[in-house]
């Protein structure tokens, strides 16, 4: 987690979004598809909220593992809901 290297919360959130969206872009490019992040705005928004939850947990003093898992779960639930509801 970037916060363990004493990076401020905002850059940590932005790096989380870039990492989440970037991984999806690489996946889509490798399978020769148009990247979903360019088609679906919820994709990057889910990454933003998930990263914000992880950083907020760290700022509040929650253990890094717990705050990271919470961020992943929030991001996953947002993506699942957005896909299931169109």
Q: What topology does this entry show?
A:
Layout lengths: L8 H22 L10 H19 L4 H21 L2
Helix pairs in contact: 1-2, 2-3
Describe the structure.
With 86 residues, the protein is an all-alpha fold. Helix content is 72%, strand content 0%. The chain has three helices and no strands. It has helices at 9-30, 41-59, 64-84. The protein is globular and about 40 Å long. The model has no long low-confidence stretch (mean pLDDT 87).
Structural class: mainly alpha
> What is the N-to-C order of secondary-structure elements (H for helix, E for strand)?
HHH
User: What is the CA-based Rg, rounded?
Assistant: 14 Å
Percent of residues in β-strands: under 5%
Count the strands? 0
In DSSP terms, counting alpha (H) and pi (I) runs of 4 or more, how many helices? 3
Largest sheet: none
What global shape is seen? globular
Our count of domains comes out at 1
N→C terminal distance: 32 Å
Low-confidence stretches: none
Mean pLDDT level:
87
Structure summarized in a few sentences:
The chain is mainly alpha-helical.
Keyword list:
86 residues; mainly alpha; globular
